[in-house]
What we know:
The structure is a homodimer.
Chain A lengths: L10 H5 L1 H4 L3 H16 L4 E4 L4 E10 L2 E9 L7 E5 L2 E10 L4 E3 L5 H12 L3 E8 L4 E6 H10 L4 E3 H7 L1 E2 L10 H9 L5
Amino acid sequence: MVNYPNGKKNTFHTAAASQADRGMALEKDINATNEYYLSIDRAVIHKKPTPVTIVKVDYPRRSAAKITEAYFKLPSTTDYNGIYRGKYIDFEAKECAQKTSFPLKSIHEHQIKHLSSVLNHGAIAFLIIRFTKLGETYLADAEETIRYINTCDRQSIPYEWFTEHAHLIPYNYVRPVDYLQVVDRLYFKENQ
Amino acid sequence: MVNYPNGKKNTFHTAAASQADRGMALEKDINATNEYYLSIDRAVIHKKPTPVTIVKVDYPRRSAAKITEAYFKLPSTTDYNGIYRGKYIDFEAKECAQKTSFPLKSIHEHQIKHLSSVLNHGAIAFLIIRFTKLGETYLADAEETIRYINTCDRQSIPYEWFTEHAHLIPYNYVRPVDYLQVVDRLYFKENQ
């Protein structure tokens, strides 16, 4: 549960805690990073809105439609995509509360399918995984991760796999998750 | 207002008619086309979910979160993006009920800004405009359209501009808006 500086809890968080909290801090950090990238025209990468099925809308005034019944929908794609250096970029981001491994059930089957799909079409695709208790955020290439998932029987990816095969994402104040630094090195073969 | 075959009106349509109906038929056609493209692995292009600000969520059971208060948010990007032939694709789609011109107020300022932005980064970007009363759907290159908008003082783009500078999108049953046929010709210089 997230406590806000003013001591109040956000309604959304309070109500739908176990589902909605997961990954909120990482999401905030990635959004801030993307805003920074956009502000200096380095990349155009956005988070997709949370998919909801809208059932009822009150329409008291022309200017103010109020949705009064809606439900969360399973996403059919990853959360983030956009363009960087002329390439289509696609990734999913997940927080992991465990210290020793990342449980595969946090990624939906159709998200893996989506990542395979965009890879086939020439995308740069990856996962951003934050081990919250360790304070470490990794970029794992989607192709390599999917290969690992398909060849192992495990229900999770051990932490050691990330330290060996994934790439620690540097942090700084204006770019809390500076993943394009890793993307440059990994997909554009730049030394920094 | 859309009337469904069973004589019932969809709650969402009934309630939020003027805002929500606009573009629904075109959206449905583009979604069907995108699903077809995806099914034959020709392209991975999705509509982004409608952005909403969630204010209240009821959480009676672990499995069923119900959103009880939410509001429509202005989109900060276009509705559609994805990857085709290794290129990042980005477009906005709008229905137009007028016969003689397309009113520019249907496209938000920040959507034009977003299109300029992705163009700068090497995207294939365009608008899909359907003149509903004429039954014609056009693909207009984003760069050309933005140039026209910036050089004219008008509040709308005349229909003749589309017949001269945009490209009629062919229709068929499985691909109701077969825009990739135009994309191939226009951006990949293919004769079909």
